[in-house]
Amino acid sequence: MRIHSHRPQRTLARAAEVSGVGFLTGAHVQLRFLPAPPSSGVVFVRTDLQPAVSIPAHVDQVTGTARRTTLGHLPGQVGLVEHVLAALAGLRIDNCRIELDAPEPPGLDGSALGFVDALGRAGLQLQSASRPVWAVNAPIVLERSGATLTLHPLAEDEFRISYFLDYGAFSPLGRQTHTQEITPGEFVRGVADCRTFLLESEAEELRRQGLGKSTTTADLLVFGPHGPIDNSLRYANEPARHKVLDLVGDLALLGADLRGHVVAYRSGHPLNVELVRALHRRLSRTETVTRQVA
């Protein structure tokens, strides 16, 4: 990997708050976004614990990827972080303290839009430190259980994600694709309001596990034999767009910007995080060699 360029780091101009019910626990959650110093990164703080527990939003802290991304160790875990991280990364907010009084953020409507709106109202502040933008010299390809995830080099100066969703020929959720350039404006216009989704059978299994009992089919996209139950799509390919949103959130765990084209086929949180781990190893090696040469 190589450094493509640099840009100024950014944080919030002022604090922002979001509240709502957690999808998994059904508890009321209060979340606060707070400005943070340069190069401090994004840190979740569980204020409901005594003493409060801080959990950096970094791939080293990932402890779960089953249907959601979880950071930290019990009792100081925080799960379903991908939508919050996508909102911050999509807006290019690099340094932020996130205080919350529950083991998950508010679920809101299952998208990142509520977080994006709150962050937008708070405003952004440029900081004195710079943030490197990294690029790959050759494709990085990962494959697992029929899913693939590849980061390709790009001649253009941009970061792009393509997602190919395929649940099989007999699924109530048809095959669909979406390609999105990831800039703050394009993120807000193209994927920020795309909601999480699952099949009716998956929703029933989560309820059997005691999760999501307060969440109804009107709160997020649940696909039955004839399409969404008690809900309607915002885009014909909203599920594929939401998968792009999830990728933006999971890739934020690298703590660095990327240039290139991510192409995903049936990828989910496990493979997303595996790519971040592979990139982190390469970044660490490159930074070590650079220090030795200097």
What does this 3D model show about the protein?
The protein is α+β, with helices and mostly antiparallel strands. The chain has one domain (2-293): Ribosomal Protein S5, domain 2 (2-Layer Sandwich). Helix content is 25%, strand content 33%. The chain contains 6 helices and 17 strands. It has helices at residues 82-90, 113-122, 184-190, 200-208, 238-251, 269-293, and strands at residues 2-12, 16-21, 28-35, 42-46, 53-56, 62-64, 70-71, 96-100, 124-135, 140-144, 147-152, 159-165, 176-181, 197-199, 221-224, 227-228, 257-265. The strands form 4 sheets. Strands 1, 9, 10, 11, 12, 13 and 17 form a 7-stranded mixed beta sheet that branches. A hairpin with a 5-residue loop joins strand 6 and strand 7 (70-71). Helix 1 packs across helix 2 (113-122), helix 1 (82-90) packs across helix 5 and helix 5 packs parallel to helix 6. The longest helix has 25 residues, at 269-293. It is globular, with a radius of gyration of 19 Å. The protein starts with a strand and ends with a helix.
Strand percentage lies at 25-35%
Write out the CATH superfamily name: lpxc deacetylase, domain 1
- Give the total of domains: 1
**How much helical structure, as a percent, in the residues?**
25-40%
Taken from the alpha-carbon principal axes, the silhouette is globular
What is the mean predicted local confidence, pLDDT? 93
**CATH class value:** Alpha Beta
- List the total number of helices: 6
- Kindly, what is the distance between the CA atoms of the first and last residues, rounded to a whole number of angstroms? 17 Å
Order of helices and strands: EEEEEEEHEHEEEEEHEHEEHEH
User: Which secondary-structure class do the elements indicate?
Assistant: alpha+beta
CATH architecture: 2-Layer Sandwich
Radius of gyration: 19 Å
